[in-house]
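[recover] target loaded
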């Protein structure tokens, strides 16, 4: 193919005041792109080393071969070195080639731009090829994005030609992908389990808050005996509060508890009272029944406490703290005043309205 010599005005964006081009870029198609060595050296340290390498014959022309990629991709690369811009159509057509060139010639800004552009154009058909290229070009963000894409659409990806080719020629990458998918599934299971546990701890924390609320001012059908029943207006957490009220009613009327045995619901009430005592910071002024007694008993049996119970108390306390931080400042202050009020001589029994 006959060489085509392009001047800098046609190959790159024209820059006023520049001298005549003093170096030429040779592409795979025989295309020659005229450029300025100072600009190339200023943007790319690899090109700088090539340009500064001594020439055997002074009369010989300065030629830098950039082979293995389409001519237009090299032209887009040189254009970026001049004006630091990459058009959308260039990224669409030559994004992978520009990623390789930016990696080879150490142009980090273009590499970041290509990483974003290529990741936005991932499909089930090309994700395996892009994954291999991301690994070779040391592009961790793109590599992780490809891995997540493969894991999310594995059934589709494993039917593509890229996956079959990888199985035949790069079994280690296949193993790496399968390992990532397995770890991703385990991570999702751990996340779901953690969310489920946090939800349980938050429900227990809400149950404790509702118990304190019922013992302090009452709610709909249950309240302290020394407080006049108010208009039964449901509170903000009525769904939880209603369940606690039903538990209190059962606890007060259960015949099995009266006989000294108790049932599973009574045991739940005992555990709720004990849990409240474990997280309560003001047992002397607390209106919840048996709070001080449970606190005193736990201090006596401190060394023999169950490790699982300690962990439960810690988790519920953490959930309670996180829940209080999510409230507006005014509500937090109101809750704090309600907890620390002077009610030391209050009775610790319930009234069923």
């Amino acid at each position: 193919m006959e060489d085509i010599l392009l001047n800098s005005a046609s190959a790159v964006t024209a820059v006023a005041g520049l001298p005549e081009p003093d170096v030429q870029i040779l592409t795979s198609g025989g295309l020659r792109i005229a450029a300025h060595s100072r600009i190339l050296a200023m943007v790319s340290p690899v090109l700088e080393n090539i340009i500064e390498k001594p020439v055997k014959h002074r009369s010989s022309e300065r030629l830098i071969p950039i082979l293995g990629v389409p001519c237009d991709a090299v032209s887009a690369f040189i254009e970026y070195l001049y004006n630091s811009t990459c058009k959308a159509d260039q990224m669409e057509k030559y994004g992978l080639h520009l990623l390789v060139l930016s990696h080879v010639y150490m142009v980090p800004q273009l590499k970041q731009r290509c990483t974003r552009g290529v990741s936005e154009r991932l499909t089930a058909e090309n994700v395996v090829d892009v994954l291999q290229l991301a690994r070779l070009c040391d592009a961790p963000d793109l590599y992780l994005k490809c891995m997540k894409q493969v894991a999310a659409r594995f059934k589709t990806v494993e039917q593509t030609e890229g996956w079959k080719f990888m199985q035949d020629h790069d079994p280690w990458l296949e193993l790496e992908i399968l390992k990532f998918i397995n770890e991703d599934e385990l991570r999702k299971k751990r996340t779901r389990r953690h969310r489920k546990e946090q939800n349980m701890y938050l429900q227990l924390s809400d149950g404790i808050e509702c118990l304190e609320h019922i013992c302090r001012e009452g709610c709909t059908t249950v309240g302290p005996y020394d407080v006049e029943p108010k208009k039964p207006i449901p509170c903000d957490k009525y769904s939880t509060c209603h369940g606690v009220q039903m538990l209190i009613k059962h606890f007060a009327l259960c015949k099995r508890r009266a006989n000294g045995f108790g049932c599973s619901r009574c045991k739940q009430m005992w555990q709720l009272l004990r849990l409240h005592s474990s997280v309560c910071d003001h047992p002397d002024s607390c209106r919840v029944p048996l709070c001080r007694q449970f606190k005193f008993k736990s201090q006596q049996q401190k060394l023999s406490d169950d490790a699982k119970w300690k962990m439960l108390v810690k988790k519920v306390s953490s959930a309670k703290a996180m829940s209080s931080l999510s409230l507006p400042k005014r509500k937090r202050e109101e809750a704090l005043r309600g907890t620390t009020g002077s009610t030391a001589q209050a009775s610790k029994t319930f009234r069923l309205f």
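[recover] notes: Confidence is low (pLDDT under 50) at residues 1-16, 335-348.
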